[in-house]
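Appendix C reproduces, verbatim, an entry submitted by the partner laboratory led by Prof. M.T., so that reviewers can inspect both the input and the predicted structure.
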Amino acid sequence: MRRIGVLVVAVLLLLPLAGIAAADGPAVRLSAAQAGTGGSVTVHGTGWRPRTLLMLLVCGRATPSRGVIGGTNSCANADGRAVTTDARGAFAKKLPVAEPPVPCPCVVHVATVTGTPAQADAVLDVAGHPVARLPAEPSGGRLSVLSDTRLTGSGSLLTWFGAPPSRTLVFTAGNLGTTPVKDPVFHVGTAHGVFAPQWDDRQWHGTLAPGGKAQIELPVELSAGAHGDYSVSLKYGGKLLAEQPWGVGRPWGVTLFWILLCLVVPAALFRAGMAVVDRMRPRRPATPRPSRFRLTCPAPRARTRPPKSPPAALPWFAPGEAPGGPRPAPHDDSPTRPRDDGPTRPHDDSPTSRTTPTRKGPT
């Protein structure tokens, strides 16, 4: 009895630890395993990182064991939902059921948007949606990323003026399978913010032997004028292998170009308008203007003599009369002077008149 009691106590003590171990890692469950288009299911998640943004999608051609074959191109992206986990790493979100672009089997695919990649799938039967067999799983090699991914390279002057930013994704891959892998094709996706990645196929030329590893470099390029926070994802065989953040600077050369354009164009239009006005304005006779930088010598001034003034006429000569001609006797008409008793002679008070003396005989 004591042994049975000890075993019961040990089982009771180990049950919480088993629950914690089972809850280790992300997991999702659905409120219903089957739903039709237009309905909805509630997705419950546990074991995720706290305060992490997740994306919920209904995807076709997928199983929890193989993942989503074809990536998000096999999902109903327009009807997806985003949710943030709580402090315990759990969430509950209602997801509308929509038909994916490929046949079922279908799953509800939950994956992290930023940070360390993590994902989980739950089986969902979409009523009325066609079902097709999954493609055969390739046998042989199985690749895995053995080192952290990094982006190498830098921008150029053209990127500063809006050219497409480009980098090189570098990582070390190893072949964990039993057969060699020749010229593997990787899926490289770029996403801006919380938007779904845009996937491109990148082929690496080479052969990875079983148990071997190699450093792989894949080009990554964004659209022209791209800037902000981006993330680069890497997939192979439908499985997400790595994710790398990428911060792209703003192309300030484009901003400078538009500022100069707004300054130069109005100035050019103003000068063209002034040229038209100057041509339409009536012309005026041009007057010669001395050059500012020409040295001119003053012309010599002609020496001019002052005009000779005519000789001043004496007061007792009449104008135009020679000085040697006859002249009248001086006389005085003052009333205070006594007159002579001699013979009287006629005279004229005019200064210009002349009198001729006459002799008188005896009377």
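The helical segments are 2-22, 157-160, 252-280. Additional entries are available on request from the coordinating office.
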